[in-house]
Predict the structure.
Amino acid sequence: MDVITLGESMVLFTPESSGPLRYVERLHRTIGGAESNVAIALSRLGHKVGWISKLGKDEFGLYIRNTIRGEGVDTSQVVFDKHFPTGIFFKERKIHGDPNIYYYRQHSAASSMDPKSIDFSYVKKAKYIHLTGITPALSTSCKKTIYKVLEEVKANQHQKIVFDPNIRLKLWSEADAREVLTDIAQKCDIVLPGIDEGRLMTGETTPENISHYFLERGTKAVIVKLGENGAYYTTDKESMYVPGEKVESLVDTVGAGDGFAAGVISGLLRGWGYHQSVQLGNKMGACALGVEGDIEGYPYWEEIDPNSPANHINR
């Protein structure tokens, strides 16, 4: 297994027209969730990926599991819970700017995840573990699950943990987010904050200072996402700004950060250095910007590099 990720996915309803949801009559159904977004993007790039989660034992849960499994992601560790429902959320499209997001995820099946629901012998099979700051914000039991994953994985020298803070202040306070996510970041090998997330977590204002904050506390590499300006990465040996990819038509920013994470991890799995891996991350993120929906824009490997054969891509 190349990568295992863990977190909640929900059914996403996107309106066909812009404006307040109270005036919308038709919506399009798809799925959304940072961790499954990364899993699907990595699968399309040719990697073997597993996704761990809990879903309601309902039609929406089956829809999510079947969609993710249909993308070639291993969903054997997904648990269906008859006591809690699958979460849903809605986008409210605006003519300009990012959409408004409305979550209906409190007391969802995924929020009941706990360490006992995780098969850690499965987790230990992966080269990379991808985590986000969304999961510990869902519930106390979810936070305990993330810390147990960190404990188990850190005991294995061959595994690396990639952490995307993915701060959701609708789920918890700024103070709680800062305290917990900064602590988690210190226990991870690679941290991928957006520039605003880095400022919130560290109190620093520049990519350089944000990166140094995490490196001084034990992180091995920090990659700060800078939107259209690309990204800045730092390790103990090198640091560099990597320009962003040109986007002809910006439709929807949701899913771009997850595509970026997938691109970086894919590059590292291929044995590339950080510069080339971040370039792939920028390209994957840019692909997500041109379409509506979280996963629809992620390309397959042969679309990224037509001259390279697609290895074990499961389409």
